[in-house]
Structure formats: structure tokens, C-alpha cells
Amino acid sequence: MEFDWSEDDARFRRELREFLDAGLPEDWDAIAEHGPGSDAQVAFARRFCPRLAERGWLTQSWPREFGGADASPWRHAILGEEMWARGEPRGPQYMNVNWIGPAIMRFGSEAQQREHLPRIAAGEVFWCQGFSEPEAGSDLAALRTAARLEDGHYVVNGGKIWTSYANHADHCFLLVRTDPASKRRRGISVLLVPMDLPGIEVREIPSVVGDRYFHEVFFNDVRVPEACRLGPADEGWSVVTYALQYERVGAARYARAARTLDQLAERARERGRLGEPEVEERLAGARAACEAARVLTYRVIDRRARGLPPSADSNVARVAGTRAEQHVARLALELFGTEGLEHGSFADAQFRAAMPAGVAVGATEVQLDLIARGVLELPRE
């Protein structure tokens, strides 16, 4: 198997790194440590994403008819790796490009495609995802937020929780139950909801992860035009399943973990600890975890590049990426001892960044259950 990059892809990676070196501010690492959703990071992302779009990089893997360049999924993977390694300066745009845009391409009406895809491709709009609920977090199919069709509008009532970027989002990719008699995966629909509609309230959830990272979003008799429904009524589960196959490998957490590991090794060298057998063994183990996550992710990208349908490989890659990031985070705390507990320290920043990794886009336990059924073919109890 050939693991090397093509000459064009290698050149793109070099150009992208040069662009990031020149375009990120000197205090970017400090800004990125505030976490996704912070005012400073989002403000920068709003300036940064249009610059990516001007170069044709933001949505290059999209079809030309939707504002892309028909680039291969590998080119998009390079973009994701370099962005995540540098603290994801795109902000929520990575969701737009990875799965919200493709879901609208696949299931959206012509009017929805005209309205949303050009703005995403231009880097002009932010989205959030309205999935988890207080009693339906990892168990997404248990959602209760209801939408009743009335005079050409869905009247939405309920709430979502753990929603990143809700305080800055222009639109929400919202899952609702449109059939009140339905259970589990049936009777669910997807609404593309403007966040400025009357009746939407956003509240920040204070957390140790970072400023403005998590939010609750409440819907109180919010009237959403029926034309905002994505796909057929009551069949939103197929839309979500399609979208999440893209999202599970959309965040190249292993790239950020690998870059953090390089910094960690340098800190250990500066302190004269790099020659210690235990330290070297721990660093090597963390490096192996990052490389395993990278190769497993490439397997998913390879399937996509060859036009094969999604598989449980995406769940395997998702778990590997989560564990790699958490492995590096624990190692940082262990090597730096009590210093790592100081707020804003190198170790603390990495640990806090890794904390939500096991929950986002489906908890690790859910991914393991899907692997048990999709890879190991174990029966359900």
C-alpha cells in the first residue's frame, strides 16, 4: 500500500502551512486556548474563513456546481489535519464544510441549496448543531424537542444542550420530533433554523473546558417555515446518519495531539528528562496512538475517495482519535505534575481541550456499541 502523498497534495500542504504561518497572529496559541466558541476565536474565524474561500481552499472537495473544485477527499483531509494541528482557526466552519453542506447537497431542495451552500462556500456563515438534549445526550434517538406543523410553519418547543457555537451561530441544524406518536428513530425531522427567530433563547453553560464552549438552547413556540425542513418529514434519521458519517472523521484530533506531543517532547528535553527510559516509553506509546488514529482515519477517507458507502470504519477511527488525544492529555499532566494543574498551563490547556472529545458526535461508549455490531457482528442484548 502506498502511504506517500502525491506531488500536488504535498505542495498544497506546504502552501497551506506557509499561509498559516503568515496568517495566524502571534498570540494565536493563547487565543486558541480559550476554546471553540470563545469571542476571540470566533472573531478571528469570521475574518479567516473568507480568506480560505478566496484561495479556493475552504470547500475545494465539494462539487463545482456547489462552489467547490471537485478536489479529492484526500485534499480535504490535508486541510483538516493542518487546521486542527493549529487549533482549528476555522471555528465552526469545519462543521459546515464536513457535513452540514454535504447533507444539504444530498437532501436539500433547490431553494435550500441556493440559500445556504454559496454562503458556506464563501465562509460567511456559522452554524451550530441542535442534537443533544438533557435526557437524550448520547441516546440521540430519545430526543423530545417537538415540532407541530401549523399553517405552513413548524411550531417548535423544547431544548438542546451542550451546543457549541450557539451564541454566534446564524443557523442551527436542528433535530425535532414531528410525529408525537413515534418512538426512537421514527418520526424525526431535520429543520434548518435561523437563530434570530423569535422564541429562541441561548444560555451559556459555565465549564472548565473554556469560555463560551457549551450552551443550552431553548425553543418556545418558535415558528419555523415548513420550507426549512431538510428532507422528507419524519425521515430525518437517514439525514442524520448520512451527516454523522462525515462528521466522525471530520475533526482531525490526532493531528492536534501529535503536534502537542512534539511540544511535550521538547519541554521534556529542556528539563533534561527526554533520556529517561520511562519518559521515552510513554512518549513512544502516545506517538503510536496518534499514528494509529491517523491510519484508521485514512482508511475511511480511502473508502470515500473510491466511492464506497460509509461503514463502521468511521466509528473505529472516531474512537482511535479520541483516545489518542486523551492519551497525550494525560501524559502532559503526568509529566508536569502539580504544575499541570495550574489554569492556563501547557498541560492544563491540552487536558481541557481533550475533555469533550469523548462526547462530541456521539459518546465513545456509543461508538463502541456501533463497532460491536458493525465490525464484530455481536448480537444486541
Report on the architecture of this protein.
- With 381 residues, the protein is of the alpha+beta class.
- It has 3 domains: 7-125, Butyryl-Coa Dehydrogenase, subunit A, domain 1 (Orthogonal Bundle), CATH 1.10.540.10; 128-233, Butyryl-CoA Dehydrogenase, subunit A, domain 2; 248-374, Up-down Bundle (Butyryl-CoA Dehydrogenase, subunit A, domain 3).
- Helices cover 48% and strands 13% of the residues.
- It contains 12 helices and 8 strands.
- The chain has helices at 7-23, 28-32, 39-54, 73-85, 93-107, 110-121, 236-247, 253-270, 277-305, 313-336, 346-354, 364-374, and strands spanning 127-130, 146-150, 153-160, 171-177, 188-194, 200-205, 214-225, 229-230.
- The protein has a 4-stranded mixed sheet with strand order 1-4-5-8. Strands 2-3-7-6 form a 4-stranded antiparallel sheet, with no helix packed on it.
- The protein is globular, with a radius of gyration of 21 Å.
- The model has no long low-confidence stretch (mean pLDDT 84).
